[in-house]
Amino acid sequence: MARQATTSVEQWRALARQLRVDSIRSSTRAGSGHPTSALSAADLIAVLAAKYLRYDFDDPANPNNDHLIFSKGHASPLLYALFRAAGAISEEELLSFRRFGSRLQGHPVPVLPWVEVATGSLGQGLAIGVGIALAGRYIDRRPYRVWVLLGDSEMAEGSVWEAFEHASHYQLGNLIGILDLNRLGQRGETMLGWNSGAYAGRARAFGWHTIEIDGHDLDQIDRAYAEASEPRDAPTLIIARTIKGRGVSFLENRDGWHGRALNDEQARQAIEELGGVQTVSVQVAKPSASAAPAPAPPAGWTGRPALPTYALGASVATRRAYGDALRAIGAVRPDLIVLDAEVSNSTYSEEFKKEFPERFFEMYIAEQQMVAAAVGLSVRHLTPFASTFAAFLTRAYDFIRMAAISRANLRLCGSHAGVSIGEDGPSQMALEDLAMMRAVHGSTVLYPCDANQTARLVALMADQDGISFLRTTRAATPVIYPPEEEFTIGGSKTVRSSPDDQVTIVAAGITVHEAIAAADQLAREGIPVRVIDAYSVKPIDRTTLHAAAETTRGRIVVVEDHWAEGGLGAAVQEAFTTNAGWHGRLPLSVTHLAVREMPGSGTPAELLDAAGISARHIASAVRALLRSSDAEKRPDERGARP
Questions:
Q1: Is residue 362 flagged as an active site residue?
Q2: Which of 424, 445, 478 is the last residue of a domain?
Q3: Which of 116, 212, 367, 560 is an active site residue?
Q4: Tell me, what DSSP letter sits at residue 184?
């Protein structure tokens, strides 16, 4: 069939019809999907692509490209239909939607070069858009716009309103939200239905410029995009009243069709109503070639940071070393961006802020927005670090999980970990964070015990791909490593050892110091033990653990300031599974000391002891393990061995 260009209202209408037809074709072929959610937004995307979007599909890495995020990721058939119309994918690939091995997955993921972040967990696209817009306005200083297609169901998510307030606070005039107000959610009408005025009022209350339109009137859509594109110091929300299933008589505004593909006969009828299969092309305009140059390196740039150093024996909190290290790395890395959730004077990220305020973004008490903004900044190839109390990262866990699906590179720091924080009590104590972060696909989990180690690990994180997490301690702890000590991701340090060691103690962070104290006490009793600082919890140093187990005849005590499930203890035991290279050469006897009862308030020493993870309890666990081992060696009363 002849290919047409789309430059007029009638041609936009033809493009919208094709986007609808292709959304139905792909989802029907797949036997699953959300075609009605795609049909409602087709007119909005047709006009955007034909006239306002600036994007080079042949060069998706072009730094001046606009950014298009389908926050309502279930409308992916519409996005893929756009890619076909723009010539980015073939009809054959379009019809591979949702099939095993296809790039066109059920919800968009960055296996496609034109998709920058994964969506589908509703309520995240606008928050990520804030991060990209922050980069454009304050870091890149490039002319791109960030267009975010929102569904009305996701407007019930609190993270959306975190994004609204931060976008307004930072005057992100380059951020444009397009609300597809089609009234129907998964199980019926949404909270506000077609009450566009309520959405507009709420958005204006957050400081947004708002435009209410009929989302199927192409002239109104055109005027709304033109108005939204005008320079201003406020983000814009276009509230477009639409009809779910638009264009197909038996689908329009009908409940019960969400997430339901048409069968072949229904699809035939729907496509016939829409005018049949066509081949309409859209020539998406390319971005301007003019752009600001990349930020120049700071004066005195060497490429290697002068990391902070701390004297052996000094008492320094690892959270303090985190902030000091950020400041040092920031001096030679203009791509380093730091975000914090209004606790920068506790996480010590304020040290970076003092030196580089233009590269620090305060996310206030909005942990979901903080992580989402970090993901958005990583889209622009920046190096974001985001920090808060580790306990509060649990609020943002879905964003962290989705960041892994987005193949994002971001670095998280959680301070105030474990019962060792003391008097603040359990609401502030991170006791789940190691398990939480270990479960993230491809993550790196680090837990330093002293300041010099922390600084080195922060520097390693800056160059680490994927999602990395640093757990820091509130209390000042002794510096046990010299400034020149080297550390590696996946490594560990053996801080006490001898050829005669009888038990291996594995610790990390605060419990390293308790383990050292226990080892010194046991040495005075004539019981030599090996102490391993497993600062790299994931990946864990299997080689060192295996060698220690060989020396100490399989006797291991693991001690951690964390719940018993999923943390260091689990990582150590997984290091001895058969597929980890350990082949049962010796039987393992593992004692796991962890927090098992709900803590309260108290001094750090009181709480560590009450949890059974203090030096006293570690020493007792070693003695008990040795007694148990000796008992197994002694013949029983009948001369047999148990």
A1: no
A2: 478
A3: 367
A4: B
